[in-house]
Amino acid sequence: MAGISFLDEHRTWVLTGETSTYALRLGEDDVPVHVYWGPALPATAVVELIGKTLPWWDGFNDPGEGVDELAADGGTRYWTPALQVRFADGTRALEWRYESHHIAAGHLRLSFADRHYPLRITLHYRLRGDVLERWTELSAGTDVEVVRADSATWALPIFEDYRLSHVTGRWAAETRLQRGFAHHGETVFASRRGITGHHANPWVMVDDGTATERHGEVYGVALAWSGSWRLTTTRASTGRLTVSGGFGQDGVVHRVGPGRPLTTPVSAGLYTAGGFGAASRAWHAYVRAHVLPHPGELRPVLYNSWEATGFDVTEAGQLALAERAAALGVELFVMDDGWFGARTGDHAGLGDWHVNRSRFPDGLKPLVDAVHGLGMQFGIWVEPEMVNPDSDLYRAHPDWVLHHPHRRRSELQRQLVLNFARPDVAAWAHEWLDRLAGTADFLKWDMNRPFSEAGWPGEADQDRLWVDHTRAVYALLDRLRADHPGLRIESCAGGGGRIDLGVLARTDQVWTSDNTDALDRLRIQHGYGQLYPARAMSAWVTDNPNFVTARSIPLGFRFHVAMAGVLGLGGDIVQWSEDDLALARELVARYKNIRAVVQHGALYRLRPPVDDGVTAVQYVLADRAVVFAYRQSAHFNAPERPLRLDGLDPAAKYLDPDSGRTHSGAVLLAHGLPLDLPAGDFASVVIRLDRIKI
Ligand code: GLA
C-alpha cells in the first residue's frame, strides 16, 4: 500500500511510506490543508478525518490556521508565515487557485496559481521510504518580491504536550543534544551566518514528552541547506504545533520574475514509532539510501596532517608522516593547510592556490607519487570560499569579497569571504579546483568563517547572494564530482560548521569537530548521530595531550571512540612510541574488520554519554554486531551492570570471536553482556558478536 493515491471526490492526496501515512487536501477556497501525519492508515480510513482537523472558530482565529500546508501570509491567516509575497502594486495577501496535480514515481506535484497575479506555486512531495521530502517552487510572469519562502510547513497532531529535541554548540563543541518542552508561541532555530553553523543544526524532533530511546512516537523535520536557514516551531492555544522552515536570511528578499524562478531546498519529514533510537536509525537509513552520493562504499582509514604539523608543512615532513601512516594501515593520506602560496600561518596566502615552491620545490607530484607508491590515496585541504587580505588574490580582486562600499570589512580568522554568487569568482574557483582534482583523490573542503557585510556593490539584486553563494558551492561540488568520478570530498567548516542534508548529498563524509578529545567526542558524536549516520562521521585519533583540550587519554580509549565512526589518525605519528605504534596497527586492522558494521549498520545507543558510569553504543549489520563501551572514571568496588543489548535475534546464539564465549540473543537482550572493563579510568572495550549459523 506504499505509494500516493488521490481521492478525487475529496480532493485529498494520501502518501503512504513503509510504516507511515501523510495526507493533505484542498479546502473549499483551494488552500492546501493538512489532514493527517502518523502511523500508516489506509486511504479509505483517511477519508474519515477530512474536515475534522479544524479547531473551533471563535471569530478571532482563522479556521484554517495551523493546518496550512504552506502557511501563506494574507487574509485572516495569522500563523507564522511560511510564504510571504509582495506584488508590484503593494498587495501582500496571497490567494490560492488550484490548477493540477501530477503523480509519478513516488513524487506528487501540486500546481497552484494566485487568483489574480501571475504567480505560480508548485508544492512538491516525494516519498523516500518513510521520509517525505517537500519543497516549494515559485515562478512569476511579472516581478514579485518573496519575503519568505519556506520549503514546507509541517503540522503535528494535537498532543497533550510537546517536547523538542535539537542540537546547539559552538566551535570545538558541536552538536550538543538539547531536549525540553516546547514554549507556547514561536521558537526559532536559525543560522544568520551564511553557513549551516556550529551553534545550531537545521533539524528538530518533536514528541509528546513521553518518548524514550526505545519507545514512543517521534516526528522529525530536517532541512537540506548549507546557507542561512530558519526553522520555527509554533505552538498555539488551539493545541497544535507546527514546524515551518526553509532557507533565507531575515530581511532579505528573493526577487522572482520572468526567467527567475525560485526553488527552495528540501525539507524532509519523518514519523517513527520506537523512540529516539528508531528515529535516528530511520534518518540514517534515509541518508545512506537517498542522500549520500556513494552510500555503498566503505570509507577508507584516513590520516590528516593538521594536528601534527599545523602550518609547518614541508615535503620531507609530509613524506615521513605518509610512510608512518602507510605502515599503520592508513588508506588515504591528507595534507592539510599550509601547502600553498604564502600560507605559513593563518595571516597570509589564502586564495593563492599554487604550491609553495620553497616547501615543495618540485611541486606536489613527488609527494603524490610517494603516497600512491605507499598504496594510499592522496587528499588535500582547500578553503575555496575564503581569502586572506594579505594575498595576491585579494590585492588583484578586492571587489571579489562580500562587502559594502562604505563599511569596514570585518575580518574573522584574519580572512574575508569570497562572493561565490559572482560568476567570475565561481569560474576562478572551478579552474584551480578542477586542476587540483586531476591530482588529488580527495578534497577536504573547509570554510572557516561566517558571512559579514554581505553586499555586492554594482549588482542590481544583491540579496540573492545569500542563496546563490550556497547554490554556487553546490554547483561547483557537483561539477567536480561529475568530471572526476573518483574524487571524494569531506565537508568541513572549522570542524562541524557545515553538516546538513544539503552538503551530504554532494560529499562523502564530514569533519565532525576540531575537538578530537575522545571524551568530548562522545557527546559530540551522540548529538551528531541523532540525525546523521556514522558512515559520514569522520573521527581521528590524535596525540596526548590533546591539541584543543590538553587532556591526556589512553590510546586504546582514543581509538575506541574514533572507531565508532569513520576512523582517521591525526597525530604526530612520527613521534609515537613503538608500543603506541604497535597498538595503533592492531586497532586499525581491527577497525577494518568491523567497519562495514559501523559504517553501514544500524546504531543502537545503549547508554548515553555520562560523566560517571558507562557510555555504550552498538552497531548491527545482518549477522554481525559490534558493541563499544566506555567508562571515564572507575570507583573502587562499584558494581558493574551487564550491558543490555538491542537489535539482536533472541532466538539466535552469538559468538564473541575474541573471547570464544557464546551468548544467547535472548540473554543479551533481557539480561545483558558482562563488559569486564579493565580497571582504572578511561577503560573501554570493543566487543564483536557474530550470529552463529545453524
Ligand atoms: C579548520 C579545520 C581544521 C584544519 C584547519 C586548518 O579549523 O576544521 O581541521 O583544517 O582549519 O587551518
Primary descriptors:
13 helices, binds alpha-D-galactopyranose, 10-stranded antiparallel β-sheet, TIM Barrel, 3 domains, 694 residues, single chain, Immunoglobulin-like, 37 strands, alpha+beta, Beta-galactosidase, Chain A, domain 5, 8-stranded parallel β-barrel
Structural notes for this entry:
This protein is of the alpha+beta class. The protein folds into three domains: 3-290, Beta-galactosidase, Chain A, domain 5 (Distorted Sandwich), CATH 2.70.98; 302-596, Alpha-Beta Barrel (TIM Barrel), CATH 3.20.20.70; 607-691, Golgi alpha-mannosidase II (Immunoglobulin-like, Sandwich). Helix content is 20%, strand content 30%. Strand 2 and strand 3 (20-26) form a beta hairpin. The two termini are 35 Å apart. The structure holds alpha-D-galactopyranose.
Number of helices: 13
How much of the sequence is in beta strands?
25-35%
Outline the biggest β-sheet.
Answer: 10 strands, antiparallel
End-to-end separation: 35 Å
Q: What is the SS-derived class?
A: alpha+beta
> In total, how many domains does the architecture comprise?
3
- Share of helical residues: 10-25%
| E-strand count | 37
**CATH fold label of the largest domain:** TIM Barrel
Mean pLDDT across the residues is 96
* Rg estimate, integer Å: 26 Å
Bound molecules: alpha-D-galactopyranose
The CATH class of the largest domain, by name, is: Alpha Beta
- Overall shape: globular
CATH superfamily of the largest domain: Aldolase class I
Unreliable stretches covering 5 or more consecutive residues:
none
CATH architecture of the largest domain: Alpha-Beta Barrel
